[in-house]
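In this supplementary section we document a worked example of the pipeline. Step one takes a protein sequence of length 303 as its only input; no multiple sequence alignment statistics are reported here. Step two produces a three-dimensional model, which step three serialises into structure tokens for compact storage. The input and output of this example are shown verbatim.
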Amino acid sequence: MVTYTAHVDAVFKALADPTRRSLLDELFVRDGQTLSELEERFAMTRFGVMKHLKLLEEAGLVVSRRRGRQKLHFLNPVPIRLVHDRWVSKYAEPWVAGLGEIKQRLESQMEKVFEIYIRTTPERLWEAITDPDIRSRYNFGAGVASDWTVGSRLEMGVAQAGLQLGEGEVLEVDPPHRLVHTMTALWGDDVKSEGASRVTWEITQVEDSCKLVVTHDELREGANEQLYGGWPMILSGLKTWLETGELLTTPGSLLQQLNAPTGAHNLRGTCHPRSSTSPPTPMTRPSAARARSCTFSIAGGTS
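The serialised model returned by step three reads:
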């Protein structure tokens, strides 16, 4: 069973207050704000805003990062995604998430921070991040291959179909605690022009679980949302795979099942080959049309 209870209670408690919801709205519009910047937008004391931010951080909905003398606050949508996966995705169409895309006003030097707790060991989590077959199970069907040494090349794609969807360079490696690499998206002209961004994976053991923080930064002003919009689904799928061995019914994980050849069995811990001539982009939430095209390609027997 996926570990939801304590975290879900904290999420609902945090979201129950309108001021805390407004704080999340402010970070949704512009991520990475200081306490002083947030305080200016509310008719309450600095101490009051601090108390609300503390509850949001305890629920995992806000992640803070030190940048010199400043403490910046980032919206972390992963806990909300987990709530969705628990009660909504089973009944809704898997591509419903694509209907909720909203264009945001973005800062220069944009940075996105995502945090999640997973009941596993650092070694298993590291393997799930670096093993291309396991990665494809929660990463929209795309594996990531490298020898994971500093300076080595990184390739993201669907090997069986000969499709390369991204490339990068490994910058830092400290298994099983920290991995830093660049990533250049190659799945379309609109994202190729964005150039390279940086992804940092940080693993910290917390009793019988691990805290995973993914920081996606060095994104240009107004960067295409395809580069970072899929992280909540990817991390939610990663958590479920490690804790249950099963795939989510969300686009990030479901495409692993859709892309399996006819007759393949979805057994716990068993690897399937994937087949698709036009997979969706691995970092964005697929639109309804894109999700339907995947279904048709499988029904038509393409490989």
